[in-house]
Amino acid sequence: MAATMRSISRRDEMSLAEPAALPVAASVAPRLHVLKRFSSRFKTSLPAYLLLLPSLIFLALFTYGAMGRVFIDALYQRATPKAPVRFVGLDNINAVLADPAFIGAVVNNLIYAVGTAIPSIGLALLFALALSRTHAVNSALRAALFLPVLIPMVAASSLFLFIFLPNVGLLDHYIGRLLPVLPNWLGDPDIALYAIMVITIWKNAGYYMLFFLAGLQAVPEDVMEAAHLDGAGPYPRFRHIILPELKPTFLFVIVVATLNAVTQVDHVFVMTKGGPSNSTNLVLFYIYQQAVEHYDIGKASAATLLTLAALMGLTALSFRTMANREGGP
Amino acid sequence: MKLLDALWKDAPLATRGEITPKLGFLLTVLLAIVWLIPLLWMGVATLRPASDGINAMAELMPSLKPTLDNVRDAWEIGDFPRYALDTTFICAGILLVQFVTITLAGFAFARLSFAGKTLIFYMFLMQLMLVPVLLIVPNLKLVAQLGLYDTLTGVMMPFFASAFGTFLMRQAFEAIPTELEDAALIDGASLFQRIRHIYVPLSMPSFSAFAIISVTSHWNDFLWPLMVINSPDKRPLTVGLSVFTATAEGTQAWGTIAAGTLMVIAPLLVTFLIFQKRFISSFVTSGIK
């Protein structure tokens, strides 16, 4: 109010010729105006909010709310499963970071991520390049390579349990003769993680292939033709025309493959339960163990929080890619 | 070689003589065969009689005396009809609620302007990044607090809102000419009538694409239902199969395991083989489910 008065008086001083009504209108109205504009803005926005409400309720409960609850749960701990919770600050985080099982799971997960992403993306690119032209034979081959994508990880695990079975399993039956000593694929701590990775590669290569096939559609036909005429062989064409064109596809597929490496752990449950001696323990399985087997919500939440934080860098990268893909707001 | 030439007859003339693409193709054919071997084994082992013995279990050559004994055993021991019903119920329930939420939200993003649109858009986008499976611990706690522990509703609830579906519908709705809506507006159609009679019928391809992605991904969900469900009769197929496998593995009943696995994946495989093109194009639009 004081400010209004001052502005009126100053204006009066500045120009006595101005009608008195003007400064009043200019000083009181903006407030009303802002309020009115806000309420009218809200009123016109209301139908949109109502349409968004059902989605926002579930997102609030199971996405944002869940994030908040992880934060809070990570700060509390129970002495025994029946004891009341008490605030422990960063103790849970420290406990998780000091837990060799967690560090082991992180290391395993890193090996698993790199060891599944690179081969499955490489194979996907090979498949897409080989099958890019559409005819009946290629369609059938694409379907064959895509089939594992549809199969539940649990079902794939049941099949691979037999494939990796010592002595009588499919692998030993057919290629065991070539090896001097038969390895125990799932029972040897040095091999088990790699055996697990084979399933992931088998299951995901066909999925990534689809994105490369779509990406190859964007390679301009006339540039390829010009390259043919200039006598560029298959490798230079691949290196200088196709690869640059596929860059966004690569970025996208790498993000998806990394997310999959953190979230696809069903086969660990069915085949190894993290063993032998924690050699196939992955981060999400560790979280599950803490929550369900040890009833330690504090530690499980702390591990979740650390995993979420680690994915943030990736999130920032993929956020841009995805916002572009979705066409912006 | 003749066969390969036939496959390359539509390639540009200058490239037809090149060897590298053909080598790549042959390698891919080889790998495609390797890719099919686990599924081939599943089929062969399902039909193999137990009398063939454990040493013949890995043979990829079909048995000369095929039998359906394994299928019968799996059907009886495994309680698969029950699991199949649970999975169907979960997938259908999620999909129906999702259809409502994504249609409404997709319409708001496509056709309405409102305060905070950018902010809300990014809030939706965040769900794509925070893969729900990472939030199992806090979400299990919430489901328990809501009294939905050990219920199929509890399994479904975290998936009722779908950012992916919302964006898909937004894209579909934006492609519909506004003139159609204007005409309906003049005739006095309400907002819901316009969505129901103009936007929804014209976006059926997007709905079916979303349905394919949603159903296949929830058909395959394992970790979340494993945590929420406790009673054996409420298990979905994936959880049921894992329990079944664990039991049958002890008795080395690999033929029965193969039959059980076949039953779990058969519905999806058959649907895929019928609607192959539609599946493939839907999966291309899904980046992250």
Question: How widely separated are the two ends of chain B?
Answer: 42 Å
| CATH homologous superfamily label of the largest domain in chain B | MetI-like
Order of helices and strands of chain B: HHHHHHHHHHHHHHH
Q: Residue share in helices of chain A? A: over 70%
What is the H/E string of chain A?
A: HHEEHHHHHHHHHHHH
**How many DSSP H or I helices of chain B?**
15
Please state the overall shape of chain A, judged from the principal axes of the Cα atoms. Answer: flat
The strand line-up of the biggest sheet of chain A is: 1-2
User: How many E-type strands of chain B?
Assistant: 0
Mean pLDDT of chain B: 88
Distance between the termini of chain A: 40 Å
The CATH architecture name of the largest domain in chain A reads Orthogonal Bundle
CATH fold title of the largest domain in chain A: MetI-like fold
Protein structure class of chain A: mainly alpha
Name the average pLDDT of chain A: 83
The low-confidence parts of chain A are 1-27
CATH class of the largest domain in chain B: Mainly Alpha
Oligomer: heterodimer
Estimate the strand proportion of chain B.
Answer: under 5%
Describe the structure in your own words.
The complex is a heterodimer of chains A (329) and B (289). Chain A is mainly α. Chain A folds into two domains: 2-73; 90-325, Orthogonal Bundle (MetI-like fold). Helices cover 75% and strands 1% of the residues of chain A. Chain A has a two-stranded antiparallel ribbon with strand order 1-2. In chain A, a hairpin with an 8-residue loop joins strand 1 (76-77) and strand 2. The longest helix of chain A has 53 residues, at 21-73. Chain A is flat, with a radius of gyration of 30 Å. Chain B contains 15 helices and no strands. Chain B has two domains: 2-67, no CATH class; 76-285, Orthogonal Bundle (MetI-like fold). The longest helix of chain B has 32 residues, at 80-111. Chain B is mainly α. In chain B, helix 2 packs across helix 14 (254-274), helix 4 packs across helix 8 and helix 4 (80-111) packs across helix 11.
